[in-house]
Design a protein that fits this description.
By secondary structure, this protein is an alpha+beta fold. The protein is built from 16 helices and 35 strands. It has a domain at about 125-335: Immunoglobulin-like. About 30% of the residues lie in helices and about 25% in strands. It is a single-pass type II membrane protein.
């Protein structure tokens, strides 16, 4: 075989192989070749650039040598022997030449596949995001991976993917057709965002992605019964509907204040779109949060048709630091209040009858309560009359037995300068006077056929729940509140409940609810006319409701499960979710039976004092268990800390409250807000900032009169007058007496 003939054939092979790859068939060709590759070559699935180059040269050398040796065979003395010799050598040379051809074909095929793969890989990159068949990763400007998302419901067929401008899109996965895309958005120089959408085109099939913790600290999501800062996931939780629930009654559910928003110490934020039938789960071992979209076995409903395609869509944004990316997300995606509630509530405590008298409240013990507030020299922004002041739950007037002369009582309170707020809720028990009227007028949430009210069980009995998607219901309910305000001079209302967990399992509403938590949103809107002093305990997309949002009831205990230690993590969490006018709940907890750390009727004395001290540094204070139920020393401590709140805390809070209207920035802030490069600051859950210049470190452990305190970098002055300017630093076993709380002011 002549060398030039071999070269011609090889050139043809190269053209065929590379041309075949350009037409998209080299992967199948490679699989066909693979079965015939000898030895080591058959086991290799990927060659480096150097390997491929070496094997191309090797194949070419063998071919050239074979051709040269054939050309050098000439006549010898013995023609027959020479002929036989030439035959044997010729077979060997032809064999060598054919091996060279095979190696060259393999090398060229691999090279073509490798270069085409590089081109495809380049097509699956957009800015700082790399897309793989089973997920994607995002890097920051320094090239560090800051975000990982895995696809759990399927893997993408990368051959179905394409790139057009800043959009990567794919239309197939390993289980069928999908509508998938990632779009890059540059909202500003220091922020880069990615819109992600995966829609299953097979009806009934869920979509699930798993967000990796990626070694960072995460914050946000929702209020929990056991609250940690940063988030702490325990065990494995299958995705459940991410809807508002009463976590006092259902302690493993999501809370009454929630938003589909999370924030990472890697300066990454993620916001799930409102349209998604969103379910949340987690895996402690894998350190992932599971985001799922589905309609099957779910309270989310399709607004059209019995079947639909589940869609999981969200936006991931990366910034230069955690504080700046959060500020961007709040300004871009969160509602904001349009006014600041009454300044008096920021300055002076609210006094509630709830924990002390509960359902036994009456005209007599209410007036005694007010007389003691005045006797001990406390200020009062307003008095909350809580629980069973009506004859039945669902009535909107006073029980004539408990309150024989409500009109005279209100006149007396007005003369004493006491404003009154009344407790209200979304239920009408079946024995209330308004139950029948509500049935006749169609004011209630109904059972699925729409003909009868759907009865629900709540903590005070069985009844119907008002349908706040119905304009007629909203008008009727608001008219009842206005009548109370007009008849008695009521200042405002404390709106209790409102979680979607109180909706029946199957129900229908006037306006169909795609997302059950929309019910919570509609309920919070009832507070708008009374927002000067109104109070809510639920929130979903409700940041623009300009009233106070209260934490769920607390047990009178020290720990993280609805106890004293949970206060700071919960306040920080709902602040990050955009709710800034916060009531931390009643001082000392709610004193519920069997949920109180004390052998007495009252909460533990030390617990009460430490709770009081912490509350003095919150946006507002709320008493229900009065300090005079203990002793004179507790009364004096309460007097001192209510005065400190009024003079030191309230002016700062009110200044920050005015800024909230424009920025949405938290009033109560985590330490990392001013120390974004400080790893220690990301993990501290027992200290907080008011603004940027007042840091608070309460004692939260029983029997302690000292604590470790972390000071971020800067110059700080303690409440004792000490200066510290060598931070960041720990103050180990810093002494804090029982009647003190440690706080530090930024020193200019």
């Amino acid at each position: 075989m002549r060398a030039d003939a071999i070269r011609v054939r090889l050139l043809g092979v190269v053209r065929v192989v590379c041309g075949f790859r350009r037409r998209g068939g080299i992967q199948k060709a490679g699989e066909n070749f693979k079965g015939r590759w000898p030895g080591k070559l058959q086991r290799e699935s990927f060659w480096s650039h150097n390997d491929i180059s070496t094997r191309i040269h090797l194949g070419a050398t063998l071919v050239v040598l074979g051709g040269a040796e054939c050309g050098n065979i000439g006549p010898t003395g013995n023609a027959a022997a020479s002929k036989r010799k030439r035959g044997r050598e010729g077979h060997r040379l032809i064999g060598a030449g054919m091996l060279g051809v095979v190696l060259l074909i393999v090398a060229v095929a691999a090279w073509c596949y490798y270069t085409a793969s590089l081109k495809k890989a380049d097509q699956l990159k957009t800015e700082l995001l790399n897309l793989h068949k089973d997920g994607f990763v995002i890097r920051n400007q320094a090239g560090v991976v800051v975000f990982r998302m895995a696809f759990r419901s399927g893997t993408l067929d990368l051959d179905s993917c394409s790139k057009k401008g800043v959009i990567l899109s794919c239309d197939r996965s390993d289980v069928g057709k999908v509508n998938f895309f990632i779009q890059v958005v540059w909202p500003r120089d220091t922020v880069m965002c990615y819109r992600v959408r995966w829609e299953e085109l097979v009806p009934g099939r869920p979509v699930e992605h798993a967000m990796d913790y990626n070694g960072s600290h995460w914050y946000g999501g929702d209020e929990r019964a056991t609250q940690h800062w940063p988030l702490s996931i325990a065990g494995q939780q299958e995705p459940e509907p991410f809807i508002t629930s009463d976590v006092y009654s259902n302690r493993h559910k999501f809370g009454g204040i929630l938003e589909r928003y999370w924030l990472s110490s890697n300066a990454v934020a993620i916001k799930i779109n409102d349209s998604v039938p969103f379910h949340l789960g987690w895996d402690e071992v894998a350190q992932t949060m599971r985001f799922q979209a589905r309609y099957q076995d779910s309270p989310y409903k399709l607004l059209q048709g019995p079947q639909g395609h589940a869609e999981l869509s969200y936006r991931v944004c990366v910034g230069s630091d955690i504080t700046s990316i959060h500020k961007y997300m709040v300004r871009r995606y969160f509602n904001k209040p349009n006014k600041v509630p009454s300044e008096a509530v920021f300055h002076h405590p609210i006094w509630s009858t709830g924990a002390l008298h509960k359902s036994e409240v009456s005209q007599e013990n209410l007036l005694t309560y007010v007389a003691n507030i005045q006797k001990y020299g406390f200020n009062c922004s307003h008095l909350e009359l809580v629980d069973c002041y009506t004859s039945n739950y669902g009535d909107f007037d006073f029980d004539p037995i408990k309150f024989p002369n409500a009109t005279a009582m209100f006149l007396q309170l007005k003369a004493d300068g006491i404003l009154v707020s009344l407790w209200t809720h979304p239920f009408a028990n079946y024995d209330s006077a308004n139950f029948g009227e509500g049935v006749r007028k169609g004011l209630f949430v109904r059972e699925p056929t729409g003909s009868l009210p759907a009865l629900v069980r709540w903590w005070n009995g069985i009844g119907a729940i008002f349908d706040f998607t119905n304009p007629e219901t909203r008008d009727w309910y608001a008219s009842q509140l206005r009548a109370l305000k007009s008849k008695y001079g009521v200042a405002s209302f404390k709106f209790d409940a409102g979680e979607t967990s109180y909706l029946p399992r199957q129900f229908s509403t006037f306006a169909p609810l795609h997302d059950p938590s929309t019910f919570t949103r509609r309920y919070t809107e009832m507070a708008i006319p009374f927002n000067e002093r109104a109070e809510l305990r639920v929130g979903y997309q409700s940041q623009n409701i300009s009233c106070f949002f209260r934490l769920i009831d607390r047990d009178s205990v020290w720990g993280y499960e609805l106890g004293l230690k949970s206060l700071i993590p919960t306040v920080l969490t709902i602040s990050i979710l955009g709710y800034q006018f916060i009531l931390p709940g009643t001082i000392g907890g709610n004193m519920y039976l069997n949920r109180t750390d004390s052998s007495r009727r009252l909460p533990d004395r030390e617990l009460y004092i430490r709770w009081l001290e912490l509350s003095a540094f919150m946006p507002a204070m709320q008493f229900s268990i009065p300090p005079w139920e203990y002793d004179d020393e507790v009364v004096q401590i309460a007097q001192r800390f209510t005065a400190l709140h009024e003079t030191l805390v309230a002016p700062r809070v009110l200044e920050l409250a005015g800024e909230v209207l424009d920025t949405g920035d938290p009033i109560v802030r985590p330490l990392w807000w001013i120390a974004t490069d400080d790893e220690a600051a990301y993990k501290i859950d027992s200290q907080f900032l008011i603004g940027d210049d007042l840091m608070v470190a309460p004692v939260l452990e029983p029997g302690k009169q000292e604590r470790d305190i972390y000071l971020p970098a800067g110059k700080w002055q303690s409440y004792k007058g000490e200066y510290f300017d060598k931070g960041p630093m720990y103050l180990t076993d810093y002494p804090v007496d029982l009647d003190e709380i440690a706080y530090f002011v930024w020193a200019q």
